[in-house]
Amino acid sequence: MVWKPHVTVAAVIERGQRFLLVEEETPRGLQFNQPAGHFEENEDLIAAIKREVQEETAWQFEPEHILSVQLWRRNPQEDTFIRVCFSGSCHSHDAAQALDQGIVATHWLSRDEIAANLLRLRSPLVLIAVDDYLRGQRYPLALLENFLDLDYG
Question: pLDDT tens digits, residue range 101-118?
Fold first, then answer.
């Protein structure tokens, strides 16, 4: 079997010192996460994060910065993830939209409320990304270059 990490995207969205999180069903029970998900075939990373936020929260998301590229594994027996974390703003909420399968609710939580739920976070990356954002860590979206279907030769 060929080893390969899972590539995911996540969004840190802040409004009024509160962060948009999803509460989702997981193998470990109900947990909190940033709107996030797997990168899909024939999709660039910007399209992936916009789609994931819309599917999981019913908000339209406009990425403004890359916060980090995170390499994470819970332990050597578990899967490895490369998580590209974005920050930005959201607009145009569709309250009538059904949320993605497994998402039971969305919440706007303060940093302290997130930290108080440490054992209910999907991964430690949730709080790490919020803290990166609060420290002002930002990188330009121009770091991402897309070469899908670029023929060489």
Answer: 999 999 999 999 999 999
Q: Are 68 and 129 in contact (CB under 8 A)?
A: yes
Count other Cβ atoms within 10 Å, centred on residue 94. 11
Q: Enter the tokens of residue 25.
A: 């069903």
Contact 123, 26 (CB under 8 A): no
Cα distances from 11 to residues 65, 133, 153, in angstroms, run: 10, 11, 37
Q: For residue 104, with 0-12 CB atoms within 10 Å meaning exposed, 13-18 middle and 19 or more buried, which class applies?
A: exposed
- The tokens describing 92, both together, are 């145009």
Contact between residue 22 and residue 57 where contact means Cβ atoms under 8 Å apart: yes
Question: What is the residue type of 151?
Answer: D
* Gap between the Cα atoms of 30 and 122, Å rounded: 9
Domains of the chain: 6-143 (3.90.79.10)
**Mean of the per-residue pLDDT values of the chain:** 95
